[in-house]
Each structure stands twice: as C-alpha cells, then as structure tokens.
C-alpha cells in the first residue's frame, strides 16, 4: 500500500490547480508590483486579483486583506500591532490556554513587557466558556485573541458569541483561523471579528504565505519598517507567486465546503469509532464541535512517540501530542489544559484527515493502530493488565 498521509493539521499537499496559477509568476511575470511600467502592472494585476479572491472567500473587502509570510506572522502582526497601537488606551490582553504558540508566545512576550495577560481556561473538551470571557474583560482590556478551531484536538470555539462580547465592550477580537479555512464558512462583514489570521499551506496552498484580515478602522501599528507595501503594515516586495497561489487555494477551499465537510466527517467518525474499539483508548477534544478532519486519541500505557515511529514504519504519517519535536519531553500545553495527566498526554496521537484520504486507508490505519498498541503494551512496564 502507498504511504498514508494523516497529518493535514501540520501541512497539506499543494493542489495542481494552485501550481498552475503560480507558474506564470515564477516564470514570465517577474515585474515588481510597485513598478509603474508594463512589467510591474502585470504583476500588480495578479496581486490585486489574489486580494479580491481572498476577500470574496471571506465576505470581506479587498482593502481589509494584508498578505504576510504565514499564520505565525499574521498572529504576531494582529497581536503586537494592536497592542502597540492601543497601549495608551489600555494594557490588558486576554487569550486562551489552548492557543497555537504563535499566539500564546506573542501574548506572553507582551506580558513580560508591560502588558497584563489573562489566559482563559478551557473545559475538558477544549471549549472556552463565554461567561469566563465576559468576566475577564476590564476597563483596561484592549484585545482578545481566541482561535477559531484548535490545531491539536480540533475543538471549534463559539467565536460569534465570544466576538459579540468583545464588540459590546469595545475590545478588539482577533481569531487564529489557520485550521478553519475550507472547513467553515466566513462572512466577515457580518461577523463580530476584527482580525483573522490564515495560512495558505493549511488549505492546499504554498508554504510561507498567509494573510491577516483587518476590519476597516481597526488600529494597528506596523512591526516591520521599509516601503509602503500592504498599507505599510507589511512592507517589502511581495511574494507574488505565493500570494497568487494563496488566492487560488482559498477560492478552491471555500467552494463546496458543505460537501467536502460531510465526506471528511464520515471518514473522521469511522476512524474514531475504529480506534475507540480498543480498550483504554480515549478521544481528546469535543465529540461533535470539532474540525471535520481531526482525530486525536490517547492510548493508555503507550508512549506516543513509539507509536508514531511504528506507524511511520508501516507507511502512516501522523503526529504526536507531545512537544518532543522541540527537544523537550513536555507534553502539549493543549492536552494539559483539557486536564490530561502526563501519561495520558504522552500516549496521544493526532491523525488529521484531508481530501485525498479514503475509507480503505481508514480501515488499514485502524488495523495497524490496533496491532501496534497491543504490541507496545505487551512491551510496556507500566501496562499491568
Ligand atoms: C499552522 C498554524 C499556525 C502557524 O502557521 P504558519 O503558516 O506555519 O506560520 C498558526 N496557528 C495555527 C492554529 C496553526 O495550525
């Protein structure tokens, strides 16, 4: 059997149509979009067109879209940019315990540099309680950043409700929607969201390019200085092939969301049901309010890293719940926040499905997972059964 890719939460393969759209800008159209001459104008057309596509896909205006180098930069620009623009109005920032490090570490950095930080807890499913947010906002609060859907456990937050609380209190609301594009419909002009981050490589676009939606009249200070590109908020000559690719990718991702969602949910639930047939395997995250492609399970008495490596040998690519990739043995802050003990967190595995996965693959993965967990438990000293 061919290798099976179940790590779409980490990145997705670029679509052929996206590559086709990019090629002219990697070969012929090399002009600088800021140049006045015909070469520049040709590139400018590609840039404008991509911006229109992103805006149309999100129900926003083209002027509200700023291109960046990806999700991390978009999160930084939103949070640090708003903090700097509003520091004379207030110095309190609120976020949640399960944010991606691009948000969490940025907020913590501000916390060490004169800002007050509140980190909202989540329940056992990874949900933020809107009442907690309501209570946390003070006269000093300037910004709230809560992700739309979590990258590890897939939990989808009630962002409309959270955003409305912020709007009522006149506090900026930013959401990291990097995992959500293509899985849910946005109509930003009607939603209480002031800023939204996205990244092309999470929806079958190229790596190293993203965007930040910034609602009109939202005050942001630039973090990088140079030219006047992207309304001065992101100066520097644009990554035109990447941006054109992002434009095509978001257009494809936002077409027939409902159909793709149903297909993924079916595969996801089949995979969850199969994995949970094994004793002492638990589902992490919310049973229904979760990303269509996200599966996250903990096998007790098994080490996630060993499981990951054994699956890799069998041609299955997944992701483990601990942050061992960073060289530390600390379990994921997300799994800690939903209340798992260290051992359970260390036995966790994220399997994130995508458009090319099939039912046959799911059957095979369930079979291999069962075999592997059984084998590893036999070897394990902590497994006393
Ligand atoms: C991948 C991811 C990011 C980072 O995006 P990059 O484009 O890789 O910088 C941020 N937030 C979430 C939720 C993500 O999944």
Task: Please describe what this structure looks like.
This protein is an alpha/beta fold and 385 residues long. It folds into 2 domains: 132 residues, Aspartate Aminotransferase, domain 1 (Alpha-Beta Complex); 238 residues, Type I PLP-dependent aspartate aminotransferase-like (Major domain) (Aspartate Aminotransferase, domain 2). Helix content is 39%, strand content 14%. A 7-stranded mixed β-sheet has the order 2-8-7-6-5-3-4, sandwiched between helices. Strands 9-10-13-12 form a 4-stranded antiparallel β-sheet. A two-stranded parallel ribbon has the order 1-11. Helix 6 links the parallel strand 5 and strand 6. The radius of gyration is 22 Å and the shape is globular. The model has no long low-confidence stretch (mean pLDDT 95). The structure holds pyridoxal-5'-phosphate (PLP). Pyridoxal-5'-phosphate binds next to helix 3.
CATH architectural type of the largest domain? 3-Layer(aba) Sandwich
Q: CATH superfamily of the largest domain, please?
A: Type I PLP-dependent aspartate aminotransferase-like (Major domain)
Q: Report the sheet-strand fraction.
A: 5-15%
Helix and strand content put the structural class at alpha/beta
The main sheet comes to: 7 strands, mixed
If you compute it from the alpha carbons, what radius of gyration comes out, rounded to the nearest whole angstrom? 22 Å
Number of helices: 12
């Amino acid at each position: 059997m061919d290798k099976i890719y179940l790590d779409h939460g980490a990145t997705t393969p670029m679509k052929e149509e996206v590559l086709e759209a990019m090629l002219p800008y990697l070969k012929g159209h090399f002009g600088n979009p800021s140049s006045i001459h015909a070469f520049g104008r040709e590139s400018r057309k590609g840039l404008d067109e991509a911006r229109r596509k992103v805006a149309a896909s999100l129900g926003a205006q083209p002027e509200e879209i700023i291109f960046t180098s990806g999700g991390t930069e978009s999160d930084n620009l939103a949070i640090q940019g708003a903090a700097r623009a509003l520091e004379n109005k207030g110095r309190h920032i609120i976020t949640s315990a399960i944010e991606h490090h691009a948000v969490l570490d940025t907020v913590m950095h501000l916390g060490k540099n004169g800002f007050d930080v509140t980190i909202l807890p989540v329940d056992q499913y990874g949900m933020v309680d809107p009442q907690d947010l309501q209570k946390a906002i003070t006269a000093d609060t300037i910004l709230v950043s809560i992700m739309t859907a979590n990258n590890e456990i897939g939990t989808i937050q009630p962002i409309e409700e959270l955003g409305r609380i912020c709007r009522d209190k006149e506090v900026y609301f930013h959401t990291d929607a990097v995992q959500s594009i293509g899985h849910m419909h946005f109509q930003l002009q009607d939603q209480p969201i002031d800023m939204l981050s996205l990244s092309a490589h999470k929806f079958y676009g190229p790596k190293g390019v993203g965007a930040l939606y910034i609602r009109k009249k939202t005050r942001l200070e630039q973090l990088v200085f140079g030219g006047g590109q992207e309304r001065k908020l992101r100066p520097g000559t644009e990554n035109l092939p990447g941006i054109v690719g992002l434009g095509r990718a978001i257009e494809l991702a936002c077409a027939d969301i409902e159909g793709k969602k149903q297909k993924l949910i079916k595969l996801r639930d089949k995979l969850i049901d199969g994995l949970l047939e094994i004793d002492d395997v638990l589902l992490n995250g919310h049973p229904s309010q979760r990303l269509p492609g996200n599966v996250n399970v903990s096998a007790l008495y098994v080490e996630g890293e060993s499981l990951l490596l054994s699956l890799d040998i069998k041609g299955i690519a997944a992701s483990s719940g601990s942050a061992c990739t960073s060289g530390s043995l600390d379990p994921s802050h997300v799994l800690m926040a939903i209340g798992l003990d260290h051992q359970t967190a260390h036995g966790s595995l994220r399997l994130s499905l995508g458009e090319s996965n099939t039912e046959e693959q799911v059957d095979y993965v369930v079979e291999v997972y069962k075999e592997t967990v059984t084998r590893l438990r036999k070897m394990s000293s902590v497994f006393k059964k």
